[in-house]
Amino acid sequence: MACNSTDLTSLRLGDDTVKRTDNFRYIGSVLDASSVLDASGNIDRDIKARISAAWAKWREVTGVICDPKMPVKLKGQIYKTIIRSVLTYGSEAWPVLE
User: Fold this and answer.
1) Residue 17 belongs to what H/E stretch?
2) Which of 45, 51, 70, 89 has the most CB within a 10 Å radius?
3) Alpha carbon of 19 to those of 1, 43, 81: distances in Å?
4) What share of the chain in percent tops pLDDT 70?
5) Where are the domains of the chain?
6) What gap in Å lies between CA 27 and CA 31, rounded to an integer?
7) Which PANTHER family does its entry note (predicted)?
8) How far does CA 41 lie from the centroid of its chain?
9) How far apart are CA 27 and CA 20, in angstroms?
10) Residue 39 pLDDT exceeds 90
11) Distance CA 27, CA 50 (A)
């Protein structure tokens, strides 16, 4: 990802070639070059990635959450600790938009 208007399509580092991209994942968040350039604070890709990750965790624990033999309190604790934490990870750094 580049924040200037260079015409490079790739960068060579030793024997490796790194392609230019408009967005990439860094520590669980999706960074978008267009929002960095225009300072609009657009976080749509990051939010969609968080929602997708939360659904993936839901599918992983669906056997426990949908089991009628499991106590409701335990299901709530699993939801709070696994699914909600994945969904809200990094949200404290999201910009507040009007």
Assistant:
1) strand 16-19
2) 45
3) 9, 23, 37
4) 62
5) 10-90
6) 10
7) ENDONUCLEASE_EXONUCLEASE_PHOSPHATASE DOMAIN-CONTAINING PROTEIN, REVERSE TRANSCRIPTASE DOMAIN-CONTAINING PROTEIN
8) 15
9) 19
10) no
11) 12
Indicate the SS3 state at residue 87. helix
The DSSP 8-state label assigned to residue 66 in this structure reads T
Residue 7: pLDDT band with limits 50, 70, 90: low
| Spatial contact of 19 and 7, defined as CB atoms under 8 Å apart | no
The answer to whether residues 41 and 35 touch, using CB atoms and an 8 Å cutoff, is: yes
- The residue assigned the tokens 């939801």 is 79
Contacts 24+ apart (CB under 8 A), 52-59: 53/28, 53/86, 53/87, 54/83, 54/84, 54/86, 54/87, 57/82, 57/83, 57/86, 58/83
CA–CA separation, 25 and 23 (whole Å): 7
Asked whether the predicted pLDDT for residue 38 surpasses 50, the reply is no
For the record, the structure tokens of 95 come out as 């910009």
